[in-house]
From TrEMBL:
GO terms for cellular component: plasma membrane. It holds the Pfam family Fer4_5. Keywords: 4Fe-4S, Electron transport, Iron, Iron-sulfur, Membrane, Metal-binding, Repeat, Transmembrane, Transmembrane helix, Transport. InterPro entries: 4Fe4S_Fe-S-bd, 4Fe4S_Fe_S_CS, Electron_Trans/Redox, NapH_MauN. This is Ferredoxin-type protein NapH. The chain crosses the membrane at residues 62-87, 125-145, 157-179.
Amino acid sequence: MRRTLAFFYRNRWLFSRRVMQLLIIAAFAMELPEGGYFAQGNLSSSTWFGIGLTDPYIWLQSLLAGAPLGKSALIGMLIVAGLYALFGGRIYCSWVCPINLLTDLSYWIRQKLHIKSNFTLSKNLRVAILLLSLLLSLLSGKLAWEMVNPITQFQRELMWGSMTGAMVLASIFLFDIFVTRRGWCSHLCPVGAFYSELGRYGRLRVKATQSGACNGCAECIKVCPEPHVLAPVVARKADLVTHGDCTRCGACLDQCSTGALAMSLNLKRAGSFKGIPVVSQD
Ligand code: SF4
Ligand code: SF4
């Protein structure tokens, strides 16, 4: 029993995220006995207990495409954008996006099989895809990314099953295993790029706890889906992860055996830690 509890504690962030991700999927997919669902719609646009929520990236594409946007879509977009701006946009990636279940599984398999292939891809590629999707929405009058968005495909796949959706998801899955470490989410997905920008100044951040706790093993960096965000903290050049790419997944906290890292809601913009200046990556 103690071993089981210790195992859960060592992976507390991972299990918490999985519970949240599965609950969100279930809220859309499971029918209530009295009819209807907890959440109506999908992650692009949904209604939770009468409150409409709109994905800001979808809203922006709709705006550029010239789609009619009502007041409720605007309010729903502002609620979602406000929350991600406050806590950090890529929380979406680790705690909400269903594709993360797939890409985390790919990463796990990759580790187990000791696959080292790492085709070089610039992280700027996802920003370029983001900008291209917005330009295409403007020029075509259609929601360009929505036509291929794997997140939407995933939800469709769950509800109805489709060959196209299955092929897109299988491609991402195999790409992440065999071609590049964290290939899709860290290099190609424009949704992640969008949320990274939206939550660039998010206040929920990984921080170093005390000066002596970190032994410099860098185990946290090995498991971080975006290792560049942790590098300044491990190099003791910063006491906070300030980069917008941090997904707040907590993998670094699960991995750290010395308790040198913590997740903190820090409402101040910058600070210092025992004389170590913060190197802001904002
Ligand atoms: S990068 Fe894209 S696919 Fe990956 S978790 Fe984030 S939104 Fe989902
Ligand atoms: S710094 Fe920690 S919380 Fe942020 S992405 Fe890396 S492992 Fe996840």
